[in-house]
Amino acid sequence: MFSCVSHCQSRLKGTHFPSHIAVALFLQDVDDAALARIDLERKVESLQEEINFLKKVHDEELRELQQQLQQQQVHIEMDLAKPDLTSALREIRIQYESMASNNMQETEEWYKSKFADLTDAAARNVEALRLAKQEANEYRRQLQTITCDLESLKGSNESLERQLRELEDRYALETASYQDTVIRLEEDTQSLKQEMAHHLQEYQDLLNVKLALDIEIATYRKLLEGEESR
Which residues form the IF rod domain (predicted)? Predict the structure, then answer.
């Protein structure tokens, strides 16, 4: 995630570029860091949307589960509003005793079946509640995991922004240093040009003096040769 910043730092250390190339490299690294930041912000936004979606789904499922539990509670209350269990058992007992002489075994099986139905209904309610709690815990765990990931990405984003600011500050300092160096080199170059022009002028003056002396010497030599020939 910090490859662009690390790469920029590695290129800044131990490498000497001309000023225009260094500026171009800095600009490229800043662009890469900005793109990485945008990509990170998109991931953070995507995770936030996923969290909102999971919260919405979780709330809807909890609401449906509460409605189901309320309906089951209403059914249970309606069943309890009917003749109580003692009365039901008394009626069952009366029916059982009335049919005992005819079919004792059939009546006993019917009683056991009714009791088993009540037991199964109670077990289903307990299982439904257990599954609901388990599902709620799973959603809570997923939410915690996504929240941790979001916090981690936020921390990474803050770190990247901090490094980007440091990179921009360093770029500004390096650019100012490069500009100062360029100005100093231009001044040195101008000074060297002036010094060379001065030396060339001195050389030309000396050359003119030498030429004049050579002419004068040649003239004297001819005069001497003329005197000797007489």
Answer: 1-230
Give residues with Cβ within 8 angstroms of 171, minimum separation 6: 26, 30
Cα(60)–Cα(137) distance, rounded to whole angstroms?
15
Sign of the Cα torsion 21, 26, 32, 38 reads negative
Compute the distance between CA of residue 22 and CA of residue 191 in angstroms, rounded to an integer: 27
Return the SS3 of 54: helix
- CA dist 157 and 165 (Å) reads 12
Helices (H) and strands (E) in the chain, counts: 3, 0
Cβ–Cβ under 8 Å, residues 23 and 176: no
Sign of CA dihedral 114, 116, 119, 124: negative
Closest CA to 170 of 40, 34, 36, 22: 22
pLDDT digits (tens, 9 = 90+) for 12-49: 444 444 444 555 555 666 666 667 667 666 766 766 67
